[in-house]
Amino acid sequence: MNHSQEWAPQVIQAEVDALKHKPGALLPILHALQDRIGFIPEAAVPIIADALHQTRAEVHGVISFYHHFRTTPPGRHVVQICRAEACQSVGARQLEAHAKARLGVDYHQTTPDREITLEAVYCLGNCACGPSIRVDDSIRGRVTPEAFDELMDELQTRPLEVMG
User: CA 67, CA 107: separation in Å to the nearest integer?
Assistant: First the structure.
């Protein structure tokens, strides 16, 4: 997921203007902003509210109602754990508890080193191979706590950059 963490009011305004005429424009606008920027900046709220003739509180209410929307930049990697029935029946609950303990965060939180944001997801379409997780854009199945730890070690170890 290559989001540009830099955003400007013009970027927000452009997304709002492109979608504000659609019926029920608020959700499409919020999705477009998160896809483009990686989260919904606080500065977007008044711009969206004005364009849609809604109050800031109404816009905030929708953002906070849907867990999918982030109001802070995500970590360098987003790790989603599937919470659907098929994965839960083969150990996803234990994997969830392990992941939260290993990372020291709950769902919708980011590790203090800004490396990993943990999210819940409901079905990755990998039901036969649960428990499944998605790391950025790749889905992995049959994830054991040990496999999770190895993966997190990989993600949290940055190669040293050689200054030339």
Answer: 9
- CB within 8 Å of 143: residues ≥ 6 apart: 95, 131, 132, 133, 151
DSSP, collapsed to helix, strand or coil, labels residue 121 as strand
Least confident piece of the model among 3-7, 77-81, 141-145, 150-154: 3-7
Query: What pairs with residue 81 in β-bridges?
Result: 120, 133
Beta bridge partners of 134: 80, 139
Task: With residue 151 as reference, give the H or E element that holds it.
Answer: helix 145-156
CA distances 58 to 16, 31, 45, 68, Å, are 16, 16, 10, 17
The model carries a pTM of 0.80
Sheet with 138-140, strands from edge to edge, namely 109-110, 116-121, 77-82, 133-135, 138-140
* Run of H or E residues at 86: helix 85-88
pLDDT confidence of 156, banded at 50, 70, 90? confident
Which residues contact residue 86 at a Cβ distance below 8 angstroms, ignoring those fewer than 6 apart?
123, 127, 128, 130
